[in-house]
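Hello, quick one for you while I still have it in my head. My current little project is about how a certain protein chain folds up. You're getting the sequence in one-letter code plus the fold written as tokens. Would you mind checking whether the tokens look sensible for this chain? Here's the protein in full, and shout if anything looks odd to you:
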Amino acid sequence: MYFKVITSGSLEEHIYLLGADGTTDTIVIDPGEAQPALDALNKDGRNCVAILLTHGHFDHIGGVRTLKEAFHAPIFIHEADATMLQSNRMSLAVLTGNLVKPVEADVLLHGGETLKLAGLELDVIHTPGHTKGGVCYVLKSDRKLFVGDTLFLEGSGRTDFPGGSEKELYHSIADKLFPLEGDFDVYCGHEEDTTLEHERKNNPFVAMGRRRGW
């Protein structure tokens, strides 16, 4: 399997490139900046066939329009976050001054889909809490879980932005991610990777939610 992690931008957001063996077709997850992704794709002779977004904040979508124009690749995002692609206010880009070029989504996700792209199958889980339309992508064949800003190493995403909810985020993690069968490598939107089993045992945010009776 082709798999590459690129860290870019002032917030050190992770861009993920992945595709099956035997093909140059590649999925790009959360291209916060276009150039690092373009450089890697061109260097490795890869063709971007899909842009998957975990949510609509500026640091995860900043390179989407440029990548789409370069490869004519469809953009996938949950329906509840789709308008963030067209609004620098809703994507929070106005907070930084680094405005994002507006673009329209091609595929609106709802959760529960299985996407067959670049020779891989990824299951989509709707995980609101950080944003209303947050999603995680599950690659069962390689035991990889792409969580955006839903889950972090012994932590969780912020819930103090518009559309955020501590309680929703708790249920997304505790009721949707933790019940996945077996262990997974967890690839976050920022910071270090972790594993699902480690978070089941050690995540303080989930422990807090349980104590509160959520």
In short: The first helix runs from residue 34 to 43.
